[in-house]
Write a structure and sequence with these properties.
The chain is globular, with a radius of gyration of 26 Å. The protein contains 15 helices and 22 strands. It is α+β, with helices and mostly antiparallel strands and 490 residues long. The longest helix has 22 residues. The strands form 6 sheets. It has a 7-stranded antiparallel sheet with strand order 12-13-17-18-16-15-14, sandwiched between helices.
């Protein structure tokens, strides 16, 4: 059983079930928590609870500035409802004085929507037509919000639930209420943020979102145009990428970070338990694993963590004193690969999931580093081609197209892999996956980026001698690049 003060002192790994005891005497109330839906330590908990009077509900427990937070939530939900969004019913709201002016806890009881899935979870299962319909719905809702002088602080797909076929908005506290209609740039920024949290492939539907927004806000003439929106999406996506990469290097809800004078480590929080022993002694884990590469620069092994999780560990070695001195002041190649993997994942480009990073240090000086990746247990592109030739055929045209699309997506995002050889493309369930990101960079548009991407294309094609097979790859790359442009993507 927790009191609010004890709840506020809980770390990031708050887990159900537990009972939250609120108030005292006649106003005492016990909430039996069945699931933690969201937890911001010492600030707010969103819980699925069973209440003595209301039954199964969602409880938003505000631990800091409770009265203001509850008021913002109430006003925001009302604004969302006025804009045409379905919202969960606010059943009750109560303030509990837990011992003083600074210890007031607020609880809002909201209708439990069940069964329900967030739009982000449902997105991969939706058809293109369904996706366009949902984006139009969101664009129109944002348009009506803007006319009413309100803005959505964080309009990402995870803040919307699909329940009984209807889209429900959840984040009332994230709605900013102003005075008068929202300006053109601010409207464009909200629409851009909605799209920037999706991969660049989905930008093809920005025109549909913009059209629905313009119709709902009666701003077709004075609102943002498509070019303005695409530019805003690019800026918002760049900011989001920087935020994602920074978050991966600090302790937060998604990543667990540990550091002292001798080491730094970051690990996906949902994999921390499985990898704790491996991170504690990575050399022993490498020695016990299946060695894939034993080079002077790097040692690579496949490791079974013992609970069904298979990872590939890459140790970046120090070759000698001069190498140690030259590397001591710079981020390690493992850190670069870690950041590159987070970047590609955010861009929707298939790569091996980066699960953990450990860097040996002596104060500010860096030493060896270890990168832990999800094991992509599939053949390389070269092995797939060899198997096809042994069977008397060539690589299937659809696999050509999938690899070509991966490369086009990579280059359209402004990235250069730096070592695009056949062994750095693996196939998992028939889909290509990019690995070995030590040299990956993302560049601003310009002559240098064009030059490096042209060189990378030539490096990829150099995997085959001149002839029919290389011509097939050239045709696949050209076809996918043309299709990308025809969809309105650049």
């Amino acid at each position: 059983m927790f009191t609010p003060a004890q709840l506020a002192r809980c770390g990031r790994d708050l887990a159900a079930p537990f009972v939250l005891q609120l108030g005292a005497g006649a106003r005492a109330r016990n909430l039996a928590c069945e699931a933690v839906l969201r937890w911001l330590p010492a600030r707010r908990a969103v819980l699925r609870v069973r209440d003595e009077r209301l039954g199964a509900v969602v409880a938003k427990v505000h631990l800091r500035a409770a009265a203001a937070a509850m008021d913002a939530e109430r006003v925001g939900l009302a604004a969302l409802a006025s804009a045409g969004f379905a919202v969960p019913a606010l059943l009750e709201a109560t303030l509990f004085d837990e011992g003083g002016q600074d210890e007031v806890v607020g609880v809002q009881y909201l209708q439990l929507l069940s069964p329900a899935h967030s739009l982000a979870e449902a997105w991969p299962r939706l058809s293109d037509e369904q996706r366009v319909a949902r984006l139009r719905e969101l664009g129109a809702g944002l348009g009506r919000l803007h006319v009413a002088g309100a803005r959505a602080g964080d309009p990402h797909l995870g803040n919307f639930l699909l329940h009984d076929g209807r889209l429900h908005a959840l984040d009332g506290g994230g709605i900013a209420i102003g005075h008068g209609p929202v300006g053109v740039r601010a409207r464009c920024a909200d629409l851009a943020l909605l799209h920037a949290q999706r991969p660049p492939d989905d930008d093809v539907w920005a025109a549909a979102t913009l059209a629905a927004h313009a119709q709902a806000s009666a701003s077709a003439a004075g609102g943002p145009d498509l070019r303005m929106l695409h530019a805003a999406i690019a800026r918002a996506r760049a900011r989001r990428l920087r935020l994602v990469i920074r978050k991966s290097m600090r302790d937060c809800s998604e990543f667990a970070v540990a550091q002292d004078a001798r080491h730094f480590s970051t690990c996906r929080r949902d994999r921390a338990d499985a990898l704790c022993n491996v991170l504690a002694d990575p050399d022993a884990a490498l020695a016990a694993g299946e060695v894939l590469k034993a080079g002077n620069t790097a040692t690579v092994a496949r490791i079974d963590t013992g609970d069904g999780l298979h990872v590939v560990c890459k140790r970046y070695n120090i070759k000698g004193l001069l190498h140690r001195v030259s590397r001591a002041w710079r981020p390690t190649r493992a850190e670069h690969s870690w950041r590159a993997a987070q970047r590609l994942a955010a861009l929707g480009i298939a790569t091996a999931d980066a699960l953990a990073l450990r860097v040996e240090r002596l104060g500010p000086l860096r030493g060896r580093a270890f990168l832990f990746l999800r094991d992509v247990n599939g053949p390389t592109r070269a092995e797939v081609a060899d198997a096809a030739r042994a069977a008397g055929s060539t690589l299937a045209p659809e696999l050509h197209a999938r690899v070509a699309l991966l490369i086009v997506r990579l280059h359209a995002a402004g990235c250069v892999h730096g070592d695009l050889k056949a062994s750095n493309l693996l196939f998992e369930d028939g889909e290509p996956v990019l690995v070995d990101l030590d040299a990956l960079v993302q560049l601003a548009p310009g002559a240098r980026r064009d030059r490096l991407q042209a060189r990378e294309r030539a490096r990829f094609l150099a995997n085959w001698p001149a002839g029919a097979e290389r011509d097939g790859w050239v045709a696949a790359l050209d076809a996918e690049a043309s299709a990308w442009v025809e969809r309105g993507l650049t």
